Amino acid sequence: MTVHPSLQTSIDAWTHSIDAITELVNPLAESEWNRPTECPGWSVRDVVSHVIGLECEMLGDPRPIHTLPRDLYHVTNELSRYMEVQVDVRRCHTAPEMTSELEYTVIRRGRQLRNEKREPDAMVRWPGGTEVALGEALSRRAFDLWVHEQDLRRALNKPGNLDSPGATITRDQLLSGLPKVVAKDAGAAPQSAVVFDVHGPVEFMRTVRVDADGRGTIDGSVSLGPTVTLTLDWESYVRLACGRVRPEAVAERLKTEGDQRLADAILQNFAVTP
What we know:
Blueprint: H1 5-25, H2 44-58, H3 78-88, H4 95-114, E1 123-126, E2 130-133, H5 134-156, H6 165-175, H7 178-185, E3 193-199, E4 204-210, E5 216-219, E6 228-233, H8 234-241, E7 254-258, H9 260-268
Parallel strand pairs: 3-6
Antiparallel strand pairs: 1-2, 3-4, 4-5, 6-7
Helix pairs in contact: 1-4, 1-5, 1-6, 2-3, 2-4, 2-5, 5-6
């Protein structure tokens, strides 16, 4: 048996991003590991620690026994507290320790993925103690890795890979959250339609329609006379949807047409990641 064909896309995207991350951080000087990223409270070291930690959990490694400091302002809920343990436990690690652990983790995880024989609907362990289908787990990991690769690239001023395999998976993951953003979070009126026109390395146009019962759906068809049209570039879309920046930070790269109040409400609720 070989890897199920439907899993290969996510595995390829994971491989592309993890190799890119390794290439980015291997030559860094000790001081560069402390550069801040757009992830609140996290440095380059912290982002890489997060990547290592979650991949270790996907391998089934036990979580570290570690008590968090009380003064971490960016730890605001149980999910962020859970994620922070793998990060904080590595804050004293040197650059060679970080690159060595990353390399070892990538080797182990890559071997696991190459030998994956389970079906896409097989339930697997997911960080936090839950279980998800294997196909969904691999897609989520590819998404998370690509987003963090971009976090590192912006922090290190090394842009690239905005159209890599992980970008396509990220697009689909983020688009799945748009109906909730428009219909529930922003409170769009029934029978309204909101168009998202994204250009750049990844281009797409999607329409979120709100039905008479206030439920949102998304499709690729063109809407005539939409309530709101939002036009922006792909990188700004990702940064907003992943909660990296507020709308004011990318205002010059963003154009809105139509109901401004609804447009503002959508932008204020745009982040779909935890």
